[in-house]
Amino acid sequence: MRLTIARLVRSVPLLALTWALTGALAGCATAPPLTDADATAEFRQNNDSIEPTNRFFYAVNDGLDTYLLRPVAVAYRYVPGVIRRPVHNMLSNLSSPITFANDVLQAKPRRAGDTMMRFLINSTAGIGGIFDVADDLGYKAHDTDFGVTLALWGAGEGPFLFLPIIGPSNPRDAGGFAGNILLDPLTYATFGGSNALRYSRLGVGAVDARERLLDPVDQVKRTALDPYATFRSLYRQNRQSEIDRTRSDDRATVPAWFR
Amino acid sequence: MITRRHLLACTAAASLLATAGPWGRALAQAAVPAPEATAFVTRLGSALVGIIDGPGTYDDKKRRLQPLVEAAVDVEGLARFCLGRYQRTATPPQMQEFTQLFRAVLMNNIFGKIGEFQGVTFTPTTTIARDGGTQVGTLIKRPNQQPNTVQWVVAPIAGAPRIIDVVAEGVSLRLTQQSDYAAFLSRNNGDVSALIAAMRNQVGR
Description:
Chain A has 259 residues and is mostly helical.
């Protein structure tokens, strides 16, 4: 759901962010009395100091998702996989330059090399990214973003935020979101049709990402007693594991076949 | 910012929302040695896959899966972990009913996935010792899906290795479940009977 929506807003300006951050100041969660050690520990662990505001935006996004994005994603599922897969491949190929810039900023040369080879191979042999040829050649895909870069640079996550449209986040990831837009060559492109490309990527990307999340999100909503809290927990654990995984990826720069 | 990893984690977490279980920190016993833990998980995995991909109706499969899962997963410990700090305010009958409902919800979640896990393959990767359990890493592949990395946390419960948690793409299922119950309870003034009523409703559906 909003998990996906981040993709959607890749190139929307920071308006939404500012709106969220100012709105966010309005509703703060009431901390439990310090005498209740367990409740205090839980409050700190949830790291959700503006929970009422966050829950409000969760409800807003949930409504938008239920009546807008989800139905489109459900319809998109009727498109055969032979079309959906190349569409997905092209979207990932278009975001390769952003991934590459972040790999470099994270000082992960092997990952940067993988991303560059993927972009070169898939843009040419893969016919504009339609086919993921690089994967078969051993250059596996990975995702990263400027939020992870900030984390590797030592930035703390800050309090949990549920942003309008964007979904679960925190100040670090919100900054990462903005950084990703700045790192994207398409942000600056001005060729004929560049606007059309930006908007179609935004729209198609949102639908593609949402379609891939249909089952897990439905499942969480069906089984969780408090879906907001479950999404919060999933988001935070998953971000942490992504950061850990990136940090520990210190594979040698020279590929095995060369040595 | 939200990437395919998230989708995967979310899928994996949701689809495995079934299989977790802890005694948590209470475990002062020796850990399960890595080879033994790996063998345990591999055996369990192939038994489950054998039933899921084998012949028989949905109900047959369910009947054969149930004892296997019950024996492999520390359901009671898991239930206690997920109730977290509220187990101290729960009365013994509440505790008993909670555990019973927890088991039913868990089994429903697992059985609901039988169709989805058709044709799954299961490869052990690396096993490492962590506080509170031995983590057996596996790569789970389903037809037409990205592979998922899943860690099975194994600890000795009553002398035998049992699964106490499942970590799918970095997401611990027992932690996620615990935070769900904790959020529900704190919004219901910590009333365990409200949680029990909600779970009864879930099982009834």
